[in-house]
Each structure stands twice: as structure tokens, then as C-alpha cells.
Amino acid sequence: MNANYKACLEACFTCLEACNICFHACLKEEHPEKMTKCIELDRECADFCSLAIASMQRSSAFVKEIVSICATVCEACGYECKKHDHEHCQKCADICFRCAEECRKLTA
Amino acid sequence: MNANYKACLEACFTCLEACNICFHACLKEEHPEKMTKCIELDRECADFCSLAIASMQRSSAFVKEIVSICATVCEACGYECKKHDHEHCQKCADICFRCAEECRKLTA
Amino acid sequence: MNANYKACLEACFTCLEACNICFHACLKEEHPEKMTKCIELDRECADFCSLAIASMQRSSAFVKEIVSICATVCEACGYECKKHDHEHCQKCADICFRCAEECRKLTA
Amino acid sequence: MNANYKACLEACFTCLEACNICFHACLKEEHPEKMTKCIELDRECADFCSLAIASMQRSSAFVKEIVSICATVCEACGYECKKHDHEHCQKCADICFRCAEECRKLTA
């Protein structure tokens, strides 16, 4: 596997986990009706990270394309999570922004 | 592809679609706080149907195993959806039960 | 779900199936060593179609982005499959090109 | 997320990566025609690990079911990889067996 992928791959793994944890935690919150956009974006972001991970691990010819959208989705998820005070949302936001940054570096 | 998979494959495609539509519609309902279990199970069920579809299409050696869990997840999702009066939930419930039935036939 | 997605969604479903069937059939060919690029692209294409399907069914905010890459991957897979005389490859090529066309229409 | 999942989750992440790397490396080998079963099982195993990861991260009600099949698929992939002398196959085999072991612990 391309050694340049290492940092981005780790960021995507961490982001996949944060998004799946945040998705589940949002559904269990006292007011899940305030978390619907977060729930939706957590799922999206997890799906794109998952495909980005697979693409890097398999040295796909389409790594740049998928990682580039992945950055967009991570940012959207990060901005939404940032609005909510729950610890899982704040943590997820930071991890999403960090993942977007690593994705952008790879496509630069 | 094994011709015996046809009915189950179609049921899984229909179920994947119903679950993804129900997931999104639940998040847009007036009271999404009542739909959290449905949202969670719609995602689960879509994921299992998706893997079941891929396994059948690729003539995997593990079709019976995945289709067998898929039936269990479809039933769980169907029972939850059935509790809600929204049209997308009732429709999803019927489709989930039908998919579970086709999955059971394949593993019988 | 957006009614405009209908044709593209169906094309992606058909393409997912063709790619998974072609993947498996290529591995069983007498000379799989000639099919390695086809095997690789069949898997890629199936993965992108799968995410495109989920995105449309859930009315994702990122449908255009994923469908746009999906078109690129479908074309790459189509050009590779077209080179091989096996019936599953020729069929897969036609279906990939048709899927790329529907994806392009959606992003036009 | 359930703390008991930690070891299994890490084993699944490592296994997903090993299988995707082995998949790609097998296709680039001098004699890919000898690697077809390995290629097929690498993809299967990656798919099951991926769903097992998502299920654990989202505290799914079906973790035991999916992790249990995952163990079976990991073992099948491990036995196949073990037959081949390539470094990526030997490494993948060890990682698959270790993942199967962690999956079995979780379902014990």
C-alpha cells in the first residue's frame, strides 16, 4: 500500500468510529428530535470514510476522487456536530475536521 | 448466478430500498423522537440486505449464513416498523416480513 | 425519494449485479490471469454503485458528487470489460456504459 | 461503545486491512491464476469484517450474530492464504486467524 496513505487512512478509521459512535449516541439522547441532521450526516460520513478506507487499502485508481468527496462530507458532518454540546458530538466534530484535513492533503 | 437466489435477491433489493426510504422519512417526521428504534433498525436492515445481495450475486460460500441473519434482522425491523402508523413504516414492515420469508426459504 | 433518481437507481442496481456476476465469473475463467484488471474494476464499480444507490435512496445531500464519480468508475470498468470476449464481460460492459450515461444525466 | 468490543474491533480493523492489501497484491502476482480462491476470500472477509466493525461501533443488537459468521469467514480466508508462500498471504493468514479468535471470544 502507498505509504502516503498512512495518515489519511488512520484519520478515516478514527472518523468512521467517531461517526458510528455519535450516530448511536444521538439516537439515545434525551432529545433525539434535535439531532436528526447529525444522525443523518454521521451515517453519510461513515459510509464515505468506509469506501475511502477500502480504496486506499486496495490502491484503487480512484483514491483521489473518493477522498476528495470524503473531505466534503467530513466537513459537513463536522459543522453539524460542532453545533451540539454533547461530548460525542464535539469529539466527532474535531475528528471529522481532522479527517477532512488529511483527505485534502492527499488530494492537494 | 444460482437461479434459486432470484426471489430472495429481489426481496432484498426491495427491502434495502424500503429501509433506506423509511430511515430518511423517519428523520423528517414531526416527532422523530418516537422513531429512534425504527431509524436504528432501518440502517441495520439495509446493511444486512446489502451484504446478502452482494453474497448472492457473487455466489459466495457464505450465502446461507448471511441470509439467515438477514432474516432475523428483517423481522426485527418489520416488528418495529409495524408499530408506527406512517405509510413508509407500514410499507417497510410488509416488505421486511416478505424479505425475511424469502431469506428463510433459501436457508430451509 | 426524488422521482428523478428512478432511472439512475435502476441502472445502478443492474450495474451492481452485472459487476458482481462478472467478478465471480472472471475468477472462474480458464485464464483468470488475463482478467485481473477486470476483476479489480468489477469490485470498484460494485462498491461505487452500492454507495450511489444508498445515497439516492436516502436523499443524501451528496448524490451529485457520488453519482459523478460513479460515472467515471462505470466507464473505466466498461472499457476494460469491453476488451474481453466472455459473454459476462460484454454484458457487463454494456450495462456499465448505460449506468455511466444515467449517472451523467443526473449530474448534468 | 461496549468496552468488551475493543480487542475484537481492533482485530477486525487489522484484518480488513490485511485482506484488502492481500486482495490487491494477489491480483498483481506473477501467477494470479493460482490466487483466485484467495482473491475471492479476501473480498468476502473484508466485507464481513467491515460489517462487524460497523455493528460493534454502533452497539448493534446483532453483534453476536455477525461476529460469529465473521469468525467463520476469517478462518476460511486464513486457511486459503496459509497455502501460499507470498509474504502478504502469510501475513494475512495470521491476522485472519487472530481475528477469528477474537470474534470467537466475543461470542463465547
From TrEMBL, chains A, B, C, D:
It holds the Pfam family Csp. It comes from the Bacteria. This is Four-helix bundle copper-binding protein.
